[in-house]
Amino acid sequence: MVRPREKLATRESSRDAPDHAARLRAFGDALGAAGFDAAIVSQPQDLYYLTGAAQPSNLVVVPGQRPVLLARRFAELTRAQAPQLEVRSGASFSAVERELRRAGVERGRLGFELDVVPAALYRRALAAFPRFAIEDCAPLLLAQRAVKDPFEVARLRRAAACFERLHETLVAHLRPGRSELELAAEAERTLRRAGHAGIVAQRRWDAALQPEGAIASGPNLATMSGGPITVSGVGLSRATPFGASARAIAAGDLVNVDLGINLDGYHADMARTYVVGEPSERVVELAGHVRAIEDALLAAVRPGLRASDLHAVGVAAAERLGVADVFQGHGGEQGPYVGHGIGLELDEPPVLGPREQTVLAEGMVLAIEPKLISPGFGAVNLEDDVVVRADGCELLSAMPRVVFVLDGAGGLRGELS
């Protein structure tokens, strides 16, 4: 079931504090069940999730024992932000080894976040812990992070609500003659004033995104460039080949805005398409198709469904509507996904792709993002964030799920869906 926007729930209170002790116990239990003797956590978002502090530190976790946080710098500040933990100064590998010995762990399997730890640091760890087998514990932590508690859902809801303020800015400033870059500047100003951190955290080492996201118009909509997104824009140069360009927006253009909004560390991920002036019959048709595909996806979301099954729902809807050749891309560059998890990072598991066997669980928060892309028309894109509930899913934003038609003079003419 998808709950309509007029009935969006507000059951979570932003005052509900996360139980970091419970999170640490759950992670320690997962480590023990997977056969790890200990783990070192150092990635900032993982540290924040487990401790409430994202200061540069090494968190030493031994199953069944009290974790210790070793601060590389700013120990007093770290203590203030993680008062439930024992915080000690010095986070060298020799300090970690002392903590492991103190816990009675001198050999075995040692977990690292090998999906993000630099290769040079991994090589140093191999030399520093010769009696340990260093293995990847990131999947355990990311699986735990995938299911959000009420505190996290409340923050994700607040982040998603920021798109409503952005929409007002887009309506006011999106007009012929303005460049994509000028529109991006207005968007970033609005977002920053709304509390957007201006930093979009991503797990990938080879990905980046501007604070205002990917803004693209006209023919730039069909160029997929520079990163793991499909409606990417072309950017200002070959060095940063994504996001807003200097292109002037023209009457009749489609304009896409796709961005991650980081509010208090938690990321919404939403997108809308705008028409500047009179929409063509083809655009009206495409807007209906994208909405129909998203409707099918949202109706299918439920606990127990595999991520790959949800992807198949999107593909089947596109085939039924006759737009499979431009679904999620074109010309052999079609993105193999219809969405992904979101939270402390913009690109969390699971990817809603054809080979992903992760089973959806109640409390997961997903960005659902069907889009149609072709050099013939540009792109029409919808992206919305939902929390998986026992009886379906719940939208986190009240934004209408439509393509907006603007009059090109600072006003809204209508909606297409």
Describe this structure in words.
The chain is of the alpha/beta class. The protein has helices spanning 20-33, 44-51, 75-81, 93-102, 119-128, 138-146, 150-173, 180-193, 281-300, 307-320, and strands at 2-3, 38-41, 57-61, 68-71, 86-89, 108-112, 132-136, 214-217, 254-263, 266-276, 339-341, 348-351, 365-368, 371-374, 378-381, 384-389, 392-395, 403-406, 412-416. The strands form four sheets. The chain has a six-stranded mixed beta sheet. A six-stranded mixed beta sheet has the order 5-4-3-2-6-7, with helices on both faces. Strands 8-9-10-18-19 form a five-stranded mixed beta sheet. Helix 7 (150-173) crosses helix 8 and helix 9 (281-300) runs antiparallel to helix 10 (307-320). The model is unreliable at 3-14 (pLDDT under 50).
CATH superfamily of the largest domain: Creatinase/methionine aminopeptidase superfamily
- What is the subunit arrangement here? single chain
Q: What is CATH's topology name of the largest domain?
A: Creatine Amidinohydrolase
Give the SSE order as H and E letters. EHEHEEHEHEHEHHHEEEHHEEEEEEEEE
Helix fraction by DSSP (H/I, runs of at least 4):
25-40%
Taking the alpha carbons of the first and last residues, their distance comes to: 20 Å
CATH architecture of the largest domain: Alpha-Beta Complex
Proportion of beta-strand residues: 15-25%
Q: What class, by secondary structure content? A: alpha/beta
Biggest sheet record: 6 strands, mixed
Q: Output the number of helix runs.
A: 10
Radius of gyration: 23 Å
Total individual domains: 2
Give the neighbour order of strands across the main sheet: 1-17-16-13-11-12
Low-confidence stretches: 3-14
Question: In CATH, what is the class of the largest domain?
Answer: Alpha Beta
- Give the averaged pLDDT, no decimals: 94
Shape: elongated
Strand segment count: 19
